[in-house]
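Lab notebook, bench 4. We co-purified these components, and the gel suggests they stay together. Before we commit to crystallization screens, I want a quick structural picture of the whole thing.
Request: model the full complex, all chains together.
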Amino acid sequence: MKASISLLQRASKHIDKYALYVPKDGVFPKGFKVASHATGVKKNGNLDLGIIRNVNTSRKASAAALFTTNKFKAAPVLVSKKVLQVTGGEGVDAIVVNSGCANAVTGDVGLKDAQEIADLVNAKLGKENATLVMSTGVIGQRLSMDKIVPAVSQQFEGAGNSNFKDDFESWLNLAKSICTTDTFPKLITSRFALPNGTEYTLTGIAKGAGMICPNMATLLGFIVTDLPITPDALKKMLRSAADRSFNCISVDGDMSTNDTISMIANGAVDTAVIDEAHEYFPQVQQQVTEFAQQLAQLVVRDGEGATKFVTVNVKNALHFADAKIIAESISNSMLVKTALYGQDANWGRILCAIGYAKLDNLQSLDVKKINVSFVATDNSEPRELKLVVDGVPQLDIDESRASEILALPDLEVLVDLGTGSEECQFWTCDISHEYVTINGDYRS
Amino acid sequence: MKASISLLQRASKHIDKYALYVPKDGVFPKGFKVASHATGVKKNGNLDLGIIRNVNTSRKASAAALFTTNKFKAAPVLVSKKVLQVTGGEGVDAIVVNSGCANAVTGDVGLKDAQEIADLVNAKLGKENATLVMSTGVIGQRLSMDKIVPAVSQQFEGAGNSNFKDDFESWLNLAKSICTTDTFPKLITSRFALPNGTEYTLTGIAKGAGMICPNMATLLGFIVTDLPITPDALKKMLRSAADRSFNCISVDGDMSTNDTISMIANGAVDTAVIDEAHEYFPQVQQQVTEFAQQLAQLVVRDGEGATKFVTVNVKNALHFADAKIIAESISNSMLVKTALYGQDANWGRILCAIGYAKLDNLQSLDVKKINVSFVATDNSEPRELKLVVDGVPQLDIDESRASEILALPDLEVLVDLGTGSEECQFWTCDISHEYVTINGDYRS
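Here is the predicted assembly.
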């Protein structure tokens, strides 16, 4: 009983994530406007509908998206997939998101509802196949169309579409409108210059916070930019960025029916269009990957009930796939995650999770070559605390230093396989009492 | 905060598992004797050393075992594996188990320690390669040989090995001596007759209670019987039984470094030796499988912090492997397990887990044919509450009946794939606040 109380007390010492991770201002790409609304689907009256519009008319926008691989794909996933297939990613001008209801496993009626929302926005835009739809929330319940449809219409009323804005507050509200169990809205912005001397802007929004698993989670994310780029190049870039960001995070190992990461590039900055062969393509890809990593990390930081942000760094593997599956196995282990929560230096569980990783190729794991350390991410010394050296467990580990590192809200688990030069970083969090509370009563 | 309190209150209403699942007496096979001892490895002074001996001398005993597939195999696993390789499973007369320390990831020194214990018992028995060793507890710490070695020796002192007994109390103490976070010792016994008119006895002992995952868990289990059977037939029988029992349970999805299920058949009942071709073999196999299922289910019932025992029954699959992986995916889902804890009829999470199961063959899953129900296991009606019928979610589910079923300590999740005739049953439990508490502070 004593342990229980001490852990609960520890969990109650919340970090003020809102203050830490929600920006006070930002830079936003040209030619995008947003609106959000509280339709009443969320019982608490919070914002639950958001619309992003491309209002640039100088050229057609490019869009790309990655969807869940879950076999029960939600209706909005099916509808959005079709839009991208039909258009080839050209001319998509709006994303409509609702939270509170996932419109998943709702059969034909759910598909009809999602299509109706897309059609409504298309009609308002005077275009066809120009709208992506996304939903997040409870599975298996029908959308409250009586609340959502009038709310969508209402956004397009008023002279000059005055409900759509591009100020910081409006973007932050958009980020709020897609939240479910998130404790803070996830909004990041960035400006970068290419060698042509021109600056472009990226804005990213995401929601977590449970069902987070490699190959995407109950994760909605979108990135918009004013860079001009072809649909094919955008798709390639998004796939690569997601493989190094949204596909490298874990909260609870569940993969949802609704996961969608999408990107719209409207080319509102009037420079030459970038394609895959363009000399700037690698640099843009790098920028977008780092940006996606920042956004994905925010999702882990807001993992349901999480008190810790942990980077699992697996390096010197013979194959990248092996490094990734080992990082994933550690990141998903319930026993590693609860030990991290309890600040228990039970590093044996880390080795255990490495040991049951389903390796494609055994060559990356040599139990005589493995090194495992905890690494502090503040400036304290010694930065690296070696737990296993060349396969030999260090039986005289400095437990007080281990406790210091484990008490940090940010820390790293470093695994050096010593068999090659490939590496993979994964981002994960601990599993707390609060996680159980949130997910035990989610629908209530 | 309200949800948190209500869930904690619910969790505190503990079922008295000890009274429900610990037998008051039992039947034990001829020719086995046991001893147990508190060596002081467990800080609380509880029993932490157990020895089973075959004392039948009419013929050589047969032994078989299945070990963890974790790549970091604990020292006792490596030592025991070698014993079975060298002997072909013939003439193994003792199993020594310690709890409190897993002797895993302890390198060469750990291997030496495990071998020393086996050698000590061999010397006491006056035999070679006759002892299996098992350990369970914290990973990465060295065995306290100063406590264990004298305690092992001590058991063999006294006239006529008087420390070894075959009464109910001694068997129950043996079951207690292998517990770690278990809340009750797991001991079952059974007597069955073959058509030859002779009765044979099975006694099974197991420990859980976390790190429980398909393909065995931090699970130690042994079954002893006085049936005469060849080592090869025993091995085949144990493999088949484990595939339908210990490999069909899930507590938290972690697989340990120490998992071992072993069986010794000493043939103390003097009838013809059974081999794979024997007419009674299928019947014996059936008996042992059902017995192993009972034992495996006890491990789930004592899942760390578990408040519910859930049978996941996937039927009418095209392939058995598909049925198993779908059952496993549901059984391991954190979101399904927390919803069960919260008694939340969030069946969408069940479909979600089915949807991300890594199917070998997609043919077993047709989203238009799937049926999902909650099934009550008491005598209340309607026994089956249909949630999804032929792929169509039932939007007017009787939520009060759903709540009644979810409030039961035992319930079934039934998935009918409607694509074939194969089926698989899995046994799982919920994930509670208590699970997090236990695993956050395990080493303390």
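Chain A touches chain B through 70 residues (CB under 8 Å). Worth comparing against the SEC data before the next meeting. Residues 281-301 of chain A form the longest helix (21 residues).
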